[in-house]
Amino acid sequence: MNALDYFNARLQATVSPMDYMRGKQMEPEKYFLIDVRNGPVHVRSVTIKDAHVLPEQELLDRLNEIPKDKEIIVYCWDVWCNTAAKVAKVLLEQGYKVKELTGGIAAWQEMNFPVSDTTNMENTPDNCGC
Questions:
Q1: Which of 38, 51, 61, 75 could share a disulfide with 33, CB 3.0–4.6 Å?
Q2: Is 70 helix (H, G, I), strand (E, B) or coil?
Q3: Alpha carbon distance 87, 83 (integer Å)
Q4: What is the domain-level CATH number for residue 64?
Q5: What is the number of domains present in the chain?
Q6: What whole-number distance in Å separates Cα of residue 50 and Cα of residue 81?
Q7: Per-residue DSSP letters for 2-64?
Q8: Which residue range forms the structural domain that includes residue 106?
């Protein structure tokens, strides 16, 4: 793979926080945003506003919650986390149209984009699974 092929593939598989915000404003019904982070609830109590919380370790049991007619955007912690990439691969294999939000929630918060507090979320296992 040459550099051009790499960057074309990367742009097809990812979306920046700014591009996601712009796209969501233009076509609000086009996207389905999923927070796929694993780990203790108290650590992931802040999530991107309007994201659907579906930890990676629950994915296969909850596929019925993910619409096939929308573009799925997945995110995890940061650029060092590969959980979103793992989930994107599984969803692509299941026939979904998927992109990873670059930089995860860390990039989102760095840009001061809207977040929600999910402190009252139900308990899930505390292991990361990254």
A1: 51
A2: coil
A3: 6
A4: 3.40.250.10
A5: 1
A6: 21
A7: -HHHHHHHHHHHEE-HHHHHHHHHH-TTSEEEEE---S-TTTT-EEETT-EE--GGGGGGGGG
A8: 17-111
